[in-house]
Amino acid sequence: MVDANTLRKGLSMTLSETHLDFIGARYGGKVRDNYSTDDGRRFIVVTDRISAFDRVLGTLPFKGQVLNRVADFWFDKTRDIAPNHVLSVPDPNAMECIECTPLPVEMIVRAYLTGVSSTSILTAYKRGEREFCGHTLPDGLKPHQALPAPILTPTTKAEQGEHDQNASREQILAMGQVKEAHFDEAADLAMRLFARGQEHCRKQGLILVDTKYEFGLADDGRMMVIDEIHTPDSSRYWFSRSYEARMAEGKSPESFDKEYVRRYLADQGFRGDGPIPVIPDEVRLEAARRYIEACETVMGEDFSPNMEEPGPRLQRNLKARLRAQG
């Protein structure tokens, strides 16, 4: 585990944004800065920004390094199920990828009745809704209880600052933005990837609660997993060791994903709209500690952050990678 002094030092060296114009055209997402080259590659720089409720909330020490490391781990571990876009990892905060055309839908797989956002399945259930993204939910479920089986709950991909919208397969197809064959292929891959994730996590003493997958089409028509996979940003993880006891006590499960930050903000009355409350350094440090714990627990190995200033290091490493590729 990274020591407290190293974490605190990281507060002053977070990577909030990048401007690497020497690579190519830039597209900035909530957490990732994307750069497209002229020869069909994309460099994805994972910043230390944290987002929740579809808003960018600030930065956490070493978060980008953690996400990049975990994503690389899972991309490699699931390559036999689905092709992915990774070509290389030239920097602790960056991936070199195949340029793909993203499907305009996120494939979310949920195995538990949980969440605090306005679009969560638990929020809908508390409102009395028993149909969620085309699935009928039974009466009598308790918060954080397992669903009868994992379900696919697609969402639209909203513009930055807007909220994603839950939808059923039929609703997504009716929008006319995704071909039926592409949707069904991505949906099948998502369920298979989730099953692989659950299997691995059980061995690590974890519960993979829910997750988001993004897919894209390569120039040759292949469906590929893109963006990230099974990271603490895209997934909710709980500890198996304490789940049953905390459920019996009526407590929320013990987690180490960004749900910690979501819950802090929800306790301040913030659920995505209006001014974002200031997140104290102690909350940022605890969130960073949990991200690192997630990384180490999932992979079964220690995480050692790179302590170089991230901006100059990225410039050096990505320029070297571009030179190596001619």
Folded structure, characterized:
With 326 residues, the chain is an alpha+beta fold. The chain has helices spanning 4-10, 63-77, 121-126, 169-174, 180-203, 240-248, 259-267, 281-299, 310-324; strands at 25-28, 32-36, 41-46, 49-52, 55-59, 86-91, 94-98, 101-102, 105-112, 131-132, 135-136, 146-152, 155-156, 206-217, 223-226, 235-239. It has a single domain (4-324), classed as 2-Layer Sandwich (D-amino Acid Aminotransferase, Chain A, domain 1). It is built from 9 helices and 16 strands. Strand 10 and strand 11 form a beta hairpin. Helix 2 runs parallel beside helix 8. It is globular, with a radius of gyration of 19 Å. The mean pLDDT is 94.
Shape: globular
CATH C-level name: Alpha Beta
DSSP strand content: 15-25%
Taking pLDDT < 50 over at least 5 consecutive residues as the criterion, the unreliable ranges are none
Distance between the termini: 39 Å
Q: How would you state the average pLDDT, rounded?
A: 94
> How would a crystallographer describe the biggest sheet?
7 strands, antiparallel
Say how many strands there are.
Answer: 16
* Count of helical stretches: 9
Percent range for helical residues? Answer: 25-40%
Q: What's the number of structural domains?
A: 1
Q: What do we call the CATH homologous superfamily?
A: ATP-grasp fold, B domain
Helix and strand run: HEEEEEHEEEEHEEEEHHEEEHHHH
What class do helices, strands and sheet pairing give?
alpha+beta
Report the radius of gyration as a whole number of Å.
Answer: 19 Å
In CATH, the architecture is: 2-Layer Sandwich
Report the CATH topology name: D-amino Acid Aminotransferase, Chain A, domain 1
